[in-house]
Structure formats: C-alpha cells, structure tokens
Write a structure and sequence with these properties.
The complex is a heterodimer of chains A (408) and B (322). Chain A is an alpha/beta fold and 408 residues long. Helix content of chain A is 52%, strand content 11%. In chain A, the strands form two sheets. A four-stranded parallel beta sheet of chain A has the order 2-1-3-4. In chain A, helix 7 links the parallel strand 3 (129-133) and strand 4. By secondary structure, chain B is mainly α. The relative contact order of chain B is 0.12. Classes of the chains: A alpha/beta (408), B mainly alpha (322). Chains A and B meet through helix 9, helix 13 and helix 14 of A and helix 12 and helix 15 of B.
C-alpha cells in the first residue's frame, strides 16, 4: 500500500468514527428531549441504519436498489420485489470525506452521499442497481462523481416541463424504461396485480402520513419528530413502517403536545437526519414548524395515486403522473403552483411566516427563493431566507436571525 | 360514495327512460339527454328530435310565429331550457341512458384489463368542432326543407343518419328494425347505411375509449350555452391546486381545462358532463367543488380519496415474489 492509499485509509477510518459519533449524538439529542416517548424509538433506530448497510439489507429482506430522488416511483420497485432506498444523507462528517474532490460550492447533500458510499467497506452489501432521475445539475454528474458501474445505473431522463403533453409522454416512457431496466437487472417480470397491490400498500402509508401531517399542522406534533418519521421512510419494509406510524398516530392522539411559539412554514432544500440543525434552531428561537415543502419530509407524499384505469398502462400512468406532476421541485420550469402549497397552509393554519432553507450550492432552490420571496412579501407574509451548509459554525448567526424573525 | 350514487341514479334512469312508457311514465319531448324516441315504450324523448322535427322544430317556430304550432315549438324549447337550467350537465353524466350504455362498455373493458385508447391533445382539440357541425346540420337541414324546397326524405337528419342511439337503444326494447337498411330511395338508403356504420364504429370506439360518443355529442353544446344562468356550478379553488393531474387523467372526456385553469373559478367546460370523477380523485381539500346555488353538493378531499381508492386491508393479502 503506497503512502497515498495509507493516508486515505487513515482518513476513512477517522471519518467513519466521526460519522458514528455524529449519528449517535444526534440520536441522543432526540432522546434527551422532554417530549421523547418510546414510540419514537423505532424511527430513531431506522435513522441509524444508513451506517449499517448489511443490517439494513437483512432487515428489508429484498435486494436493495438505490435511487437519488423521490421522482422514481417507490411502488414500481416494491412491485418488482426490490427495496428502494433513497441515497440521501445529512451527515456533516461524510461530506468532508469527499469534499476535496469536488467544487467548494457544490450541493453538500451530494458530497455526503458520495462520502457515505466511500465509507462503505467491501464487506458491506452493494446495491443491486442505482436509479438516478436527472433532476438538478449536480445529480446528472452522479456517474462522474462516483465512478458507478454504468451497467448498474439507470438515469431516468426527467422532463423539466410537466404540463406539456410531450413532457408527460416522455416521463411515462421513462417509467416504462425503468420497468425494463429493473426487469433485466432482477430477472423478474412486473405483473399488473403486483403493481396494483403495491399501489394499495403505499396508499395506506400515504393515508397514515396524511393524518400525521394534519396533527403537525394543528400544532400537536413537534416538527423534528415529524421529520424523524419522514426521514425513516423506506429504511424498513413499508408495511411494518406503516404499522408503527399508526402507533405514532395513536400516541399523538392520546398525548398531543401544544405548539410552542409562532407557527412557521419551512420551505426549500432537503433536510436530512442527522442534520436537524435548522428545525432545532427554529424551535430554539421560539417558533414551531407547522408545515413544509421539503422533498425529505411532507413532499415525499404529494398528490395521491388514484387510478380509474386498472390496466397495467393505466396504473403505470397514474404512478408516473403522481410522482412527476404533483412534485413542486424548482428544477421544473413550470413550477408556479409551488406557492399554492404554502398559501394553502397559511390560510388554514396559524402560520405567521415562511423560512426558506437553501443549502449552499443548491441553485434551483436558491433561485426560486427570490421569486417566492417577492410573491409572499407582496401578500404581506414575512419571509426569511437561510442559506447554510453542512457545518455547525453558522449556528449562532442563524439563531440570531431566527430570533429576530420570530419578533416580527 | 359519489360514484356509487351515480351508478344507482344512472341505472334507475336507464330503466325509467327506456321502459317507462310501458308503465305510463313519460317525461315529455324535451329531455336534455339521449333518451331515444325510437325505443318503443320509452319514458321520455330527447330534445334533439323536437329540434329537428317538422312539427315542433325551430323552422316551425320561425315560420308560424304567433300561431298555436309556433307556440308549441317554443313550448318544447322552453321546457328544454328549464330542464337544462335545473340540472345542467347532470343530464349527461347522471341521467343520459346512452351515456350509461357507454359506461357499461368501459366497465367491461376495465374488467378485462384492456388499456384505454388515448387521444393526443391535438387530436382531442381537432374533434371539438365536430359537435358544432352536427348541431348546425340538424338545424340547417330542417330549415332547408321548410324554406328551400329540400325533399322531405331528409327529415330528422341527425337521428336518421348520425345518432348511434337510434339503431342501438331500440335493441333494449327488443327491436332490431333500426339496424335494417331502408331501400326506399337513395336518400333513405344512404341515411340508413350511415346510421348503421356509425353505430358500428361507435360500438368499437365506446369499448376502447370511455364516453367516446360524448366527444361528438351536440347536446353538450346546447346544455353548455345555458351554463352561466344555471344554478349548477363547478368551481375550482385555483390558489390551492397542487397540479397533480388526477383530474385530467381520470376525466372520461379527457378535459384538460380543470387542471390547467390557474385564474378563473368556473371550470365547467364545454365537454364536462359533471360525472364528478375529477372531484372524486382530487386529493386537495376543497379545491374542486360542485354547487347548486350556494349549496355545496360535493367537494374534493384527501379523506374522500383515501376512502374511494384504498381497499380495506387484508392481512397477508399481498404476496410479492422476490
């Protein structure tokens, strides 16, 4: 082993330790909260799983296929007998492992994803395949960043115009392509009945999470717990996860907590465990997040799969459109309806303002935040844009700005 | 559940309008739906017959203004307007017996798991004027008979040459005579050939495309003319729509307007038949609603979608081969 490799191995070993510490301290922080209850333990256990891929693989009991975005329909994977696992990480330490190889102003979540992949030892189970919907500029570089096996990687070409006929047709074609890719990789044929069953299973989860969203919006559930539940999605098979979610609903019904402070809406770039920095700072500033449009939280379940046509094509079309058209990611060119989600929550719930989270290097959300700010301010709604990175150093600064915002 | 209630209403009216006359039930000659008068013992007659008829049609009202015959034509027109104002497009989605027949074909296709034929947006847009052409055809030809010397053999042009209900609906009363070709003269022969050919084509179309005939139905145009003064309203809370597209995809008529509307509240479009399928599949609370005057008849909601589209869970019912 040459010096370079030795140095890399040492760095990997040190970062692995730091990642472990980061996850565990984040978990301890959650467990030390006054509102902690054993009902949350299941979800906290799941949040620790990304560090242990073998354990995760054993728990889900199916071949794992990683994907980079919610745009790839979960139901399709499930119906094919594989487990979809979203490649996403909020780990600060993992990002440092890959930071040297990428531009400074690059999406920290992707740096963390690459870092986590590099940490994975050869003894750990590799995914059976990877699916990458081409959302933002960083994501389309995934192949170059990771040297992933092209045979194992499927890029879903995401049309950035959703409301055009061409865009919808292309996305449906991509859904068919994804089916063919998975069929060839896994050696199974996707059946209509299996797809219909998977749609039902995920709709039950959608129904349960909808009730939890309502509880959160009514101020009966702190945002960090909601995010813990949302972040743990697909870190376990969907059915036991939904059952545990039902337990949580029972718990929240029986022990509703009272919203502390002013309600705010959290918009913008994804927030992932263990990086709960912003929601915790918002809470510390005397505000409570009553709603969000984060793709790692409420926006995992936009719209609903409502197929009137139960042919294979009808099901696939309903699925494709649910993931494509209901999404309000600013990577889309026709995204003027994004504000509707925010205004809808503002009208129905005691929400006083919008906090917009921008991860450094997350250009789509960065650009969209200015438009959103103009629209909301013209409607007299306070708006605060927080740009941050996977670092702790700006915590004081953010806290001060949030405290000032809470005074408005 | 709205769709179950609709099924009950549709079938009740199918029976009433197809067989009602045999039991002394008749809703008159100005119904805003395809209740075919060629069905022996029917329980009501489609207004399009009155509109084209030599004795009750528009041409009669114009030619005999102020006389009893002219007033009778106006009476049927007035009755049609009243009935249309009262229920507007509910006549199409909930009452029309020919619409119910089309829904049976769709049900059969879905049971067989056969994919629905999908029209491109441009093809769908190109079909829109057809119903206006048919409406013009059924108004102009009787006027030509009355005032320009066109031969009487051209009477009831729409019913006798185009409408697929004429050869098909009498089958439910046991009559096959409207499937026969009429060799009386060239006009009657051409009319009867067209009628049977169109009916055959419609049967195929109705099987592969939901509410296929409604894409061409001139009654939709007539009803739509009165939408602004009808108490029936179909509205959208445009500021709360998430754009998921369920309304567009599930619409039997492939209407895009409801999904695309971003400014106006009124979304009752020309082709809408108020079947409420879009409202049933909209997961956003209160975004789509159907009203009668100020009363809300039905409104979209996440809870309703969950009840409508999620089947009761059976433990161990899902088996996926790994």
């Amino acid at each position: 082993m040459d010096d370079n490799n030795k140095r890399r191995a040492r760095l990997r070993s040190r970062v692995r330790q730091e990642v472990q510490t980061e996850y565990e301290s984040a978990r301890r922080l959650m467990e030390a909260r006054d509102d902690y209850d054993p009902v949350w333990a299941y979800f906290l256990d799941l949040l620790m799983r990304p560090m242990d891929r073998n354990g995760l693989q054993a728990a889900v009991g199916r071949p794992v296929v990683e994907h980079l975005c919610n745009q790839a329909p979960y139901e399709l994977f499930h119906a094919m007998g594989v487990h979809p696992l979203r490649m996403a990480s909020g780990c600060f330490a993992a990002g440092r492992l890959s930071a040297g190889d990428f531009p400074v102003l690059m999406c920290p979540m992707l740096k963390a994803i690459v870092g986590m992949q590099r940490l994975r030892e050869s003894s750990q189970t590799a995914p059976s395949a990877r699916v990458v919907p081409t959302t933002c500029d960083w994501v389309v570089q995934y192949q170059q960043m990771t040297d992933a096996d092209p045979e194992q990687t499927f890029f879903m070409e995401l049309p950035h115009l959703r409301e055009s006929e061409r865009g919808q047709q292309r996305w449906l074609e991509q859904a068919y392509e994804l089916v063919r890719f998975l069929e060839s990789r896994m050696g199974v044929k996707l059946k209509r009945k299996a797809l219909a069953s998977s749609v039902q299973i995920f709709m039950r989860a959608w129904q349960a999470i909808g009730r939890l969203i309502e509880q959160r919006r009514a101020g009966r559930l702190p945002a960090v717990w909601f995010m813990a539940v949302a972040n743990s999605f697909m870190l376990d098979p969907i059915e036991p996860w939904t059952e545990q979610l039902q337990r949580v609903l029972g718990h929240v019904d029986a022990h509703p907590s009272q919203a502390a402070g002013k309600g705010v809406f959290l918009a913008g770039s994804p927030i992932l465990f263990p990086n709960f920095k912003l929601p915790l700072l918002i809470e510390a500033a005397g505000m409570t997040v009553l709603g969000d449009d984060l793709c790692t939280s409420e926006r995992i379940w936009p719209g609903a799969v409502c197929p009137e046509e139960n042919s294979f094509h009808g099901l696939l079309r309903a699925l494709a459109e649910r993931y494509h058209m209901a999404c309000i990611c600013p990577t889309f060119a026709d995204n003027e309806r994004r504000i509707n989600t925010i205004l809808g929550v503002l009208q129905r719930y005691p929400v006083r303002g919008v906090v917009h989270h921008v991860l450094k290097g997350c250009h789509p959300f960065d650009i969209d935040s200015f438009r959103l700010e103009r629209q909301l301010k013209s409607a007299g709604i306070p708006f605060l844009r927080i740009e941050t990175d996977y670092v702790e150093e700006d915590n004081r600064n953010i806290a001060t700005r949030l405290e000032a915002f809470a005074e408005i | 559940m709205v769709f179950k209630l609709r099924l009950i209403v549709q079938h009740l009216f199918f029976v009433l309008l197809t067989y009602g006359g045999r039991f002394g039930f008749h809703m008159g000659f100005a119904l805003p739906c395809f209740s075919c008068p060629f069905v022996m013992g029917c329980g009501g007659s489609c207004y399009l017959l009155s509109l084209q008829g030599n004795w009750w049609g528009l041409q009669m009202a114009l030619a005999n203004w102020g006389t009893v015959m002219g007033l009778q034509a106006l009476y049927y027109l007035g009755l049609f307007v009243l009935l249309t104002l009262a229920l507007n497009k509910f006549w199409c989605g909930w009452i029309c017996p020919f619409g119910t027949l089309q829904d049976w074909f769709t049900y059969l296709r879905r049971r067989l798991g056969i994919r629905e034929a999908q029209l491109s947006w441009s093809a769908r847009d190109r079909l829109k004027p057809v119903k206006y052409i048919l409406l013009a055809y059924m108004i102009v030809v009787p006027l030509l008979i009355a005032h320009a010397g066109l031969h009487y053999d051209f009477h009831l042009p729409f019913c006798r040459s185009i409408c697929p209900a004429k050869p098909l609906m009498p089958l439910f009363a046991g009559s096959t005579r409207h499937l026969a070709l009429d060799f009386t003269n060239t006009v009657t022969l051409v009319f009867s050939i067209l009628s049977v050919a169109i009916a055959g084509g419609m049967l195929v179309g109705m099987f592969f495309k939901e509410r296929f005939f409604c894409l061409f139905c001139p009654m939709l145009v007539l009803i739509h003319l009165l939408r602004k003064i009808s108490p029936v309203r179909f509205e959208k809370e445009v500021g709360a729509c998430l754009g998921c597209g369920n309304c567009r995809r599930n619409c039997p008529m492939d209407i895009r307007d409801v999904h695309e509307q971003k400014t106006d509240k009124a979304v009752l479009s020309e082709d809408c038949m108020l079947c409420m399928t879009c409202t049933e599949s909209c997961p956003a609370d209160g975004v789509l609603s159907v009203r009668f005057f100020k009363w809300r008849l039905f409104s979209s909601s996440r809870d309703y979608v969950a009840r409508r589209f999620i089947k009761p869970h059976k433990a161990g019912s899902v088996k996926v081969k790994v």
